[in-house]
Amino acid sequence: MAEGGSMESAAGRYQSTLDALSSLITKKSRADKSNKGDRYDLLFDYLKILELDEAISQLKIIHVAGTKGKGSTCTFAESILRNCGFRTGLFTSPHLIDVRERFRLDGLEISEEKFLEYFWWCYDRLKEKTNDDVPMPTYFRFLALLAFKIFAAEQVDVAILEVGLGGRFDATNVVKKPIVCGISSLGYDHMEILGNTLGEIAGEKAGIFKHEIPAFTVPQPDEAMHVLEEKASKLNGPLPEPFIKGLTTASLQGRAQIVPDIESPGNLVFYLDGAHSPESMEACARWFSLCTRDDNHLSNLNYQPQQHMDEGSKKDTAQILLFNCMSVRDPQLLLPRLMRTCASHGVCFQKALFVPNISVYHKVGSQALPTVDPQVDLSWQFGLQRAWESLMQSDKGVKPSNTDQACEEVKDDTGMRVTSFKNSSVFSSLPSAIKWLRDTAQKDRFVCFQVLVTGSLHLIGDVLRLIKK
């Protein structure tokens, strides 16, 4: 057991815990009828091993699935209930910097001490009782079981659970009687697992609905609504004051988050939103456009965009895009929605920067940034750059073939490659892109650089690690 031994440092104990958690990461399996959702029935064996059956039945649980907005919906619900005076537990995914972000008690991520205690309580019992027939739970299943243990032991009044993927075979769906279920906006995502049509996707999400349990949804495409309509309803009527306060004060890292750069005060602001679908990209673009037209949105951040200017003068602004997305996404669906929605609101990007993520997907990391790989494969980022340049020039009536003529490859101050077109650059690493932004902001102190970071929640987490150090 990693927490044994008084000589082990706190950082070492925590890293040992993350290593144990990383050992549970496996390749995803398609959740369909032929494999019972990758042996979904095992979850009930795990509950018996951990003696959580009765504890879960006593919890008051709000269960939310969907394609877009389910994490935000859970966050809104938690904030409302906390402002109504309830003790809350919130389980969401993914985390951006630290795995403890997934488990919140009364709005705050669980302490390291409690996380270690509950983690090893669950891990050791499962390690002792599992075998070839009932193997150790996979990564997300373990995290869901851990959430149930935490919320039961901490005696929360209400637990809000965000589905990880799908619904019918999701680890959170062992809840037999939630107090309410919800389906946020549905769209095309994780089609290799959930199905190729909105109807099939809605069917998987609707798997969280339970007999005689209230269920709510938002307006959906007809194909999806047809699947949901018998179990869905709408809530009408004025919101009580605690609901309004909860909604207006709710926040979730990496979603519509604004962070002024501490190293370039007054000159560099990061706008972070983990949008990664066409619909959420459009919503992100509308939010960014609204923010960049209105200086008042920074008033609560102690940010002074004109602090280096003479009294009465106004600083110019320049918008820059910092982007990456996973290779399973289609940039031809994401980038046009982003650029054209911004353009329709009068916002045009001076430059687009494409970078690789730092985070890896096969290991749970600590708060320390992993070492940047100097040999990183940038072929995906070059593809994103070509798509952006083609999009920019086609909107200006220029033939896309001209994009190759303006390519320039240079090295930055750290020796890392930077490949630039007129409207965009590919950086070999995220730190070098952040350094370029900071250097640019320092050189032109009469301009406030507004950087939209989007396309990947992994990228958002990496940026937060760098700019909050």
Would you mind describing this structure in some detail?
- With 469 residues, this protein is of the alpha/beta class.
- It folds into 2 domains: 35-249, Mur-like, catalytic domain (UDP-N-acetylmuramoyl-L-alanine:D-glutamate ligase, 3-Layer(aba) Sandwich), CATH 3.40.1190.10; 257-300 and 314-363 and 377-395 and 406-468, Mur ligase, C-terminal domain (Protein-Tyrosine Phosphatase, Chain A).
- Helix content is 38%, strand content 15%.
- It contains 16 helices and 15 strands.
- The chain has helices at 10-22, 36-39, 42-49, 53-58, 70-83, 112-129, 139-153, 191-194, 198-205, 222-228, 241-249, 278-293, 331-344, 379-395, 430-443, 457-467; strands at 61-65, 88-91, 103-105, 108-109, 158-162, 180-183, 215-217, 257-260, 268-272, 316-323, 349-354, 408-411, 417-420, 424-427, 447-454.
- A hairpin with a 3-residue loop joins strand 13 (417-420) and strand 14.
- Helix 12 runs parallel beside helix 13 (331-344).
- The protein is globular and about 60 Å long.
- It starts with 9 loop residues before the first helix and ends with a helix.
- The model is unreliable at 1-5, 30-36, 231-237, 302-312 and 400-405 (pLDDT under 50).
Identify the notable features of this structure and list them briefly.
UDP-N-acetylmuramoyl-L-alanine:D-glutamate ligase, single chain, ligase, alpha/beta, globular, Protein-Tyrosine Phosphatase, Chain A, 16 helices
SSE blueprint:
Blueprint: H1 10-22, H2 36-39, H3 42-49, H4 53-58, E1 61-65, H5 70-83, E2 88-91, E3 103-105, E4 108-109, H6 112-129, H7 139-153, E5 158-162, E6 180-183, H8 191-194, H9 198-205, E7 215-217, H10 222-228, H11 241-249, E8 257-260, E9 268-272, H12 278-293, E10 316-323, H13 331-344, E11 349-354, H14 379-395, E12 408-411, E13 417-420, E14 424-427, H15 430-443, E15 447-454, H16 457-467
Helix pairs in contact: 5-11, 6-7, 9-10, 12-13, 13-14
